[in-house]
Here is the input.
Amino acid sequence: MGKKIVIIGGVAAGPKAACRIKRLMADAEVTLVDQDNLISYGGCGIPYYVAGDVSDEKELRSTSFHMVRDEYFFENAKGVKTLTSTRALSIDRKAKTVLVESLATGVQTHLPYDTLMLATGSKPIDLPIPGTDAPNVFTVSDLHKAIAIKEMIAKGKVGKAVVIGGGAIGIEMAEAFTDLWGVETALIEYMDQVLPRIVDKPLARMMEKNLRDSNVEVFLGEGAEEILVKDGLAVGVRTGKRTLDADLVIIAAGIRPRGELAKEAGLQTSDRGAITVNERMQTSDPNIYAAGDCVEITHLVSGKKFVAPFGSMANREGRVAADNMAGIPSIFKGGVASFIVKAFDVAVGSVGLSYEMALAEGFDAGFSLSSPADRAHFYPGQAIIIIELVFDKKTRRVLGLQGAGPVNDGLSVRLDAAAVAISAGATIDDFGTIEMAYSPPFSPAIDPINAAAYIADNLCGNRMHQIEIDTFNEWLNAPKTNKDWVVIDVRHAVEATPFAEKFGDDLWISLPYDQVRARYTELPKDKKMIIFCNAGSRSFEVQVFLNSVDIKDTLVVPGGFNVIRRMGVDWLPV
Amino acid sequence: MGKKIVIIGGVAAGPKAACRIKRLMADAEVTLVDQDNLISYGGCGIPYYVAGDVSDEKELRSTSFHMVRDEYFFENAKGVKTLTSTRALSIDRKAKTVLVESLATGVQTHLPYDTLMLATGSKPIDLPIPGTDAPNVFTVSDLHKAIAIKEMIAKGKVGKAVVIGGGAIGIEMAEAFTDLWGVETALIEYMDQVLPRIVDKPLARMMEKNLRDSNVEVFLGEGAEEILVKDGLAVGVRTGKRTLDADLVIIAAGIRPRGELAKEAGLQTSDRGAITVNERMQTSDPNIYAAGDCVEITHLVSGKKFVAPFGSMANREGRVAADNMAGIPSIFKGGVASFIVKAFDVAVGSVGLSYEMALAEGFDAGFSLSSPADRAHFYPGQAIIIIELVFDKKTRRVLGLQGAGPVNDGLSVRLDAAAVAISAGATIDDFGTIEMAYSPPFSPAIDPINAAAYIADNLCGNRMHQIEIDTFNEWLNAPKTNKDWVVIDVRHAVEATPFAEKFGDDLWISLPYDQVRARYTELPKDKKMIIFCNAGSRSFEVQVFLNSVDIKDTLVVPGGFNVIRRMGVDWLPV
Here is the structure.
């Protein structure tokens, strides 16, 4: 008779572990329990199902060979006993049983286990405001909700939608509503940027501009204070500043790990309610494992614990848990919070810590911001991507990398290589020699990831001095009187001229890059100079040269006009 | 007065180092010397220039901001003295001078240096056969040749072309001729596969099929024995097996490092003629540095020295050399031979060692071959990619990763992440938890790089037993009598039926995946079973199950039909 394995939770980590265990121990009696009747689905695909990119919800719970992953599948193809619509009520760790209840019949049963695994996932954060229980207010937390949302839209019941929360799910849902259904959509975010605590403001601004350019209204720094309800249905959302009409409201305000079952059983959990596990995905009870959204893992940069609610992490963790449950020693070291989101024509992603997060964690952080081509600049179809590299100035360790680009894999390429390097504790110098496969259709000879490290090296070496984009914008928007700085625009004259005409050629001086060595004596001596170009690299080179001729009060606009244009500012010449 | 720096070679490593040095030491007198009049160009872009994707050769030697990198540019924008059409004849290491000769005037000059850098590049291998000096026989080694080739084609002088050499340049030139100019093109490769010593046969076969499907004739295992010349012009190429007509012949038989100048100056060079450098890119004379195609670097998997003739490597090496020349200690550890090539609709790439190379290097090598989706399988536009992971069975170290896919960045993503990991000595287990940024438009929840590691783990753990594709093909093509094996096709019956009809249902048995546990007793007991599906994963699962019920003589077709179909075989049902 084989070992009895009970797994609570049937979405990602649970099914992964169940199947792996059966492959490792064919005689194990594996039972998978889930309170839902739909299991083993790609929750991250819900926005694409709502949008219509994915036509049937079954596709989200099918294998790549088009077999639906239901009870029949797990029983017959995988040899896993599967109890759906069955809720786990409590764990008796002494008796090694789980009390479960059939939601259909109310019958309660004690399932005995030799080893138990908790893959209880996460639940959406409830907003403590009135109106959230109206039937047209949804979280994006399971397939049933997804089906209901899509049905409402498909039936033409939704002219206007409000999405509360500017994280990935909120952004993806806003895209789904706007792009494919023509629903007038507003997105509200309590913080002063979208993707808070994930990317820094320059990158967030690019996503915000992209959303607005694509007809999503975006309101930042506004909390939803009330969902207005009429005749039992939500009809709008009131913030501190305005009221927005809505036929449908999405609450995407984040998630909380589902750790209650574990906590009530006396297992160690965190203040946030996440289950504590070691590197083998083992809880404080050696016979109980846990994986997925319900656990905390180690952040490989900060060293602190965090919740990484991604189906990808759940699968990786689930496999490690399964190996250990089957007696194969296996280690999950932690994660670096790899993240990517697509909306309309823009992808934004990050790995490791943002600059703001790094400062908050006490690092002596710096950042390099650049706007290189994603492949050889002479190759047709090349595009600019934005890369921000975050580093520790003292140790030169790379703490994070984030970026934005078009919706191809040009951003992923750099994020994923960076994730491996950051996980291994790589420095700026290591990043300078990361070996990206080179051919003009795929990358430039100096890859963006290398170039970002070069800039970081120049910043650390005090060879490059930069102005923050926000400061530059403020300066330009301030009244013109008594400005103690000038912009030196080292682009081609034809590019600089409209700017010089707008701001006046005493404030915005055109001096093309290749003429600086010959003509630098023409520059004003008594002013701080802000050097400006398209990508920042010419500016840096000019800064270094000016420094060598004793013009030292200069600042470079990092990433140059490429960055500013994508962030969207109101001072551009038309 | 600043340090005198002389740099010989103006294509990639040389200009990179020259400019970096000027940024680090503004007062340095940097002189860049090149025998050509065209410098600082993207040589890897030549096929795209010939094809017409890049309309003007100037684009290959322009910056991203459209400034041509000529003598004027280097002098004025970079502060680098630039001597073009000037050949370096010899180095007097005692006097610390380089003797150079102006090709225009014949005037010879001794250039004094404090530090010298050699970036002399590589030259194409000359074939020791008659006819190579005809004017319509070209190597793809500099812009002048590229211009001449394109001119011939554009003038309609080329109906047929023969490309000798199935490496990256040969393949790219064949694409350029065929795809954009409609030239009837034949490709000859001496070895029995294209991309020899770079990828293993399954991947090479995919590129060969892709070339043939795109109207390039491909002849393998045939050396060019003579270039036939008539009236002073090449008119054909004779191999051991045939004669091919040609109005244009390209010789792309590989490169040799240009190390003569170094060798004659008594610097240490390898048997192949590459300049020996340490991790600081310093030659055996501490005052002389070298970088780019002319040097040998350390292969981070084999530990041996190799030449990595890529513009990307030259740039990375050039920067490290420049740092050290300017007194900033900087290290270049070596490389992992990252490689990617695109032709028509297929990309093929590799990093580290191929399986065959790993065996040749004495590793106890194994390989996992898989055919996953490059992004969530339910996401529109997803495509299959092929991944081969090469590992050492004893140490579980990953030795290499190679793959094929459509022409997006889905292959690069995995290659580049693998390059970072392999450079750091990662094991199969490390690869299992590489954190790829997950979102359905960019990757599946179980990324191909993780999945490849999972398979490798199952191979190492003796849980998976595979048949090599070549063996499987041979068996199928052999006469039917007395076969001691059967194919168990675990795909949907509708997929299996045409195969069962072709081979007979005693040889090709359809038993769908989800019915195996219920019906395995129907299988013949006395035969070896080859388990077949589309991607290999169902087959593996069935193998594990059959093993548990004491049916142990089974083999899985790795990567399944997805791999076989892309390689092209002659036994498929029509």
About this structure: The two ends of chain B are 77 Å apart (CA to CA). Residues 368 and 455 of chain B are 6 Å apart (CA to CA). Chain B touches chain A through 114 residues (CB under 8 Å).
